[in-house]
What we know:
Layout: E1 2-4, H1 15-25, H2 33-39, E2 43-48, E3 57-61, H3 66-75, E4 78-82, H4 87-99, E5 104-108, E6 125-133, E7 136-140, E8 148-152, H5 153-161, E9 172-176, H6 188-200, H7 208-218, H8 222-225, H9 229-242, H10 251-262, E10 265-266, H11 268-297, H12 301-325, E11 333-334
Antiparallel strand pairs: 1-6, 2-3, 4-9, 5-6, 5-9, 6-7, 7-8, 10-11
Protein name: Lantibiotic ABC transporter
Domain DUF4872: 154-324
InterPro entries: BtrH_N (IPR026935), DUF4872 (IPR032369)
Amino acid sequence: MSTVIDIDTRGAQHCETTALGVLLRHQGLDLTEPMLFGLGAGLSFVYWDGKNMGFPFLGGRVKPFDLTRNLATRLGLELLVQETGSPRRAWAHATALIDTGRPVGLQLDSYHLDYFGSKVHFGGHIVAMYGYDDHNAYLVDTDQQGGAVSTSLDSLARARAARGPMTAKHRSFALTVPGGLPSPRERIIPAITACADAFLDPPIANLGHRGIEKAGKLVRTWLQRTDNPQRDLPQAALLMEKGGTGGALFRNLYRDFLAECTDVLDSSHLRTGHTLYAEAATLWTEVARLIGTAGESGDAQHLVQAGSLLADLSRVEHEAMQVLSRLGRESPRTIQGLPDN
């Protein structure tokens, strides 16, 4: 037996926006990956460390699945989410949608997937499933992981059943676009200002611009934080640039989202925010390079330089988000671009 939906299996750079793109294109709503990321208010920052962690983690986006919830709310999409502790019911939830001709999103731990190149546990990984047979499930993942891929049903079951940080209970989800396709143009400013407000006023010092400032102080100690700097620092740098972030810890995606918005709305605040995030993206890539070089060489001076750049980044991104937060208080002129309903 085999059930495979005829869909556009284009992958992208980030897992959640890749899956969202597959689900929405199937219903006739084709948005760029930066636009999906930006409308989902996906940009953030977290410095995450703990007693049970082998090494600190720098995150550049909101929590897994928050982007999907944000996007559904912003565009007025119907979001069906199903979770269960039962592997049998979880499989039935996924296959029921596919059997009706609809791809389904799955949140799982990428470690268990047959095709995944990097065997690191990540319970917030999201894929789109578009088919299955007696042995394999057919998925769409990022370009880096192969785009249209397959994995054994057993590996998929283990990935969905995994427990730990950022995991969900066999979460599956589907999106329904309303009869009249939503106009992304009208949602741009609310999405940007919501993202800016959260970034500017984080509840704890590990998040937003305060988190970047904190990272600038703590990154200088990273050679003493691990007994294997040659492994841990280059891996941290790799995750920042190649770990499904689109480069520069998601700042490239947000830069490109803002650039796309400037083609739609005539706003000086928007243009300034784009310029500042273009600068931030370049600095983040340099921070990743310095962290990787510090691990390879054992020279702490590279971490001192990375710390100084992070202090600069805290100021640059704080300024950018302050400017972007003012979008809600001006009336930018629509000049071209995204179609209305």
